[in-house]
Amino acid sequence: MEGGGKVLHIVMFPWLAIGHLRPFLRLSICLAQKGHRISFISTPRNLHRAVKVPQDLSHLINVIAFPLPEVEHLPPHAESSMDVPHVKQQLLKVAFDLLRPLVSDFLDNVRPKPDWIVYDYASHWLPKLAEEMGISRAFFSLFTAAFMAFLGSPSALMDQKYSRSTAADFTIVPEWIPFPSDMAFRLHEMSKNMEKDADGNEYDSGTSDSIRFGLSIDGSEIVIFRSCVEFEPEWFDLVRQLYQKPVIPVGILPVEDEEHDNNEEWLKIKQWLDAQKDDSLVYVALGTEAALSQTEAQELALGLEQCGLPFFWVLNRNYLPEMLPDGFQDRVANRGMVYTEWAPQIKILSHPAVGAFLTHCGWNSATEALGFGRVLILFPVMNDQGLNARLLQEKKVGVEIPRNEKDGSFTRDSVSETVRLVLVSEEGRKVRENARKMKELFGDKSRSSSYVDSLVQHMVQTRTR
């Protein structure tokens, strides 16, 4: 038994987003591989979609499904952030908070009694509940240390003095960042985060995200980060100062490729990729939640056409091929593939034909690409993505497509020029070299395992009981 001979029982409780469930599962697998018992809690549809327990660990990872309570205006069967428009995300948090009695009952009655609960930012009510039951508490941040430093200390997050209520409030570098940095949102990024629905409704969960983050961090004994100190050392130093408690990185927890090589859809994609030269094409994918307007989708398409380089573009559920310019697919047929089904991103990123990744800057996707040494073309859309783009550009592993800071508009020329700069120009050589070096950091599974060893050692030594 790794970790001093003690078998821990660790409860996992992620937020209702596929991009949160998967890293929580990955950490669960890493902990189970070291002999520890895991109880993984989520809702039925989310567990079905995102949680696949390896057969050899099924005796250590117990999956617990709690039905998500119904909430007015929340679509039926909506259980994850990808099931609802961004403007209704807060309603999902209302439903999530209603899971409290079920979680409380489980923690009180499950045997063996949990040693730790690892939780996400949204469950602000959980730390106090667990503390009353004598269960140790770990907040698992799936955000970068830079993003969390921008948010501030728990006291700042919960202090009216530092309240950010308008989009403009988020465009200012906070006073507690002591070194030169442009770590702040653009106005258009936060305006999108604060959009109302078509009827002018602005939904509220009753608890702001700032309070959720503040209570979740404040009530934890340790804060776990899915990031690497080596990538953002100055930001880790700052969050340690801000939190005044142990901050433990676990690396990026490299994702295993779970798709079969003989999958029929993958074979079609692979055949097309195999026909391209090494490092010649840009892979384009903007995640499962991002939504572009028709004008934005068309400018992006025309920019890809104008750049003259091969591309593989995965359209997510928010787009229809009809949003693309007339005749676009015919005109680029000899060098561009527009794919409208779910695509195996890990397989695509690992293919030698892929030279660059045009990404929405979700931290999961960015780290997956860097794990294969792919240079990034940065196109943040929502949530934390703007600050991720600042960090990635600051670290010189990607270049952001220029946009109007107020309304987010951009041109086909800016898309074409940025793609060519990053993928083929002499000016972009240094960025390509920097990204290739990241393979050693983000693709190193032994480094990640060592990080997890340190976490386990701390959890064994400091558990409440």
Describe the structure in your own words.
The structure is a single chain. This protein has 465 residues and is of the alpha/beta class. The protein folds into two domains: 9-254 and 445-462, 3-Layer(aba) Sandwich (Rossmann fold), CATH 3.40.50; 264-442, Rossmann fold. The protein is built from 19 helices and 13 strands. The chain has helices at residues 18-33, 44-50, 89-97, 100-109, 126-132, 145-151, 154-158, 187-193, 209-218, 233-243, 264-274, 294-307, 328-331, 345-350, 363-370, 385-394, 412-423, 429-442, 445-462; strands at residues 9-13, 37-42, 61-65, 116-119, 136-141, 222-225, 247-249, 281-285, 311-314, 336-339, 354-359, 375-378, 398-400. The strands form two sheets. It has a seven-stranded parallel β-sheet with strand order 3-2-1-4-5-6-7, with helices on both faces. Helix 2 (44-50) links the parallel strand 2 and strand 3. It is globular and about 65 Å long.
CATH top level of the largest domain is Alpha Beta
Structural class: alpha/beta
Into how many domains do the coordinates divide? 2
Q: Into which percent range does the helicity of residues fall?
A: 40-55%
- Main β-sheet description: 7 strands, parallel
The coarse silhouette is: globular
Q: What is the strand content?
A: 5-15%
End-to-end Cα distance: 19 Å
- The tally of beta strands, per DSSP, is 13
pLDDT average, as an integer?
A: 92
Q: Architecture of the largest domain, according to CATH?
A: 3-Layer(aba) Sandwich
CATH superfamily of the largest domain: Glycogen Phosphorylase B
Q: What strand line-up does the widest sheet have? A: 3-2-1-4-5-6-7
User: Under CATH, the topology of the largest domain is which?
Assistant: Rossmann fold
> Compute the gyration radius: what is it?
22 Å
Uncertain stretches of 5 or more adjacent residues: none
Count of helix runs: 19
